[in-house]
Amino acid sequence: MPQSATYLATFTRGVTVHTGRRIVHLYAGLVLYGASDGLLVGAGLGLDPWDVFHQGISDHSGLSIGMVSIVVGAAVLLLWWPLRQRPGLGTVSNVFIVGLAMDGTLRLLPEVHALGVRIPLLVAAIVLNGVATGLYITARFGPGPRDGLMTGLHRRTGRSIRLVRTGIELTVLAVGFLLGGSVGVGTVLYAVAIGPLAQYFLRFFEIPQPIAPPEPEPVTRPEPERSPAVAAGGDRPVAGAAADPAILP
Question: Is the pTM for the entire model greater than 0.85?
Fold first, then answer.
């Protein structure tokens, strides 16, 4: 096989492995994110802002909190259209998988009442949420619908991402609280810890980009040695020079 074909095959395998790792990161991250949200609900010590909102709607609608998360995610995704945001595979997957994983976790999780169990459950949920965030963001298949709303408003308004995010989360937190969503020490702990945790796990789960191998240098063949007659006469031998040495120039 020529060297160029070998290099191309090596690079193609590297791209395939890279894409496979990204897909694993995406779906593992989304499932773990939903599971961590379910653990937060099970701990009963306060939720993150969006889940306070989801829980408040769930209490009044009769829908499960995971189903409310799916409906809200789809509604937020519709807001991308006027903001000219483009969803990716991760965006659409986020809408469905997080809510389903949350409901599945709550079905499997027994009800806990002892504070000695609820506090470790809360801490585990927040750490797991950081792990999940690192996984699905490093997959680079597009932001979740809520993060896309934040970045879209940032571009349209010119406000800082920090200000836009704070405004959105305070709004959904206040509405969720008024609807009866759970706000407590878990809400505060989540707000303080999730930033550093996500930053750490983003570095931990980073997937290096495949690097195209350099093209092999062309092989140079040594020129054949020339006979004295050829060298003296240029590219062509002098007629008769080798046959009759008496002939003079």
Answer: no
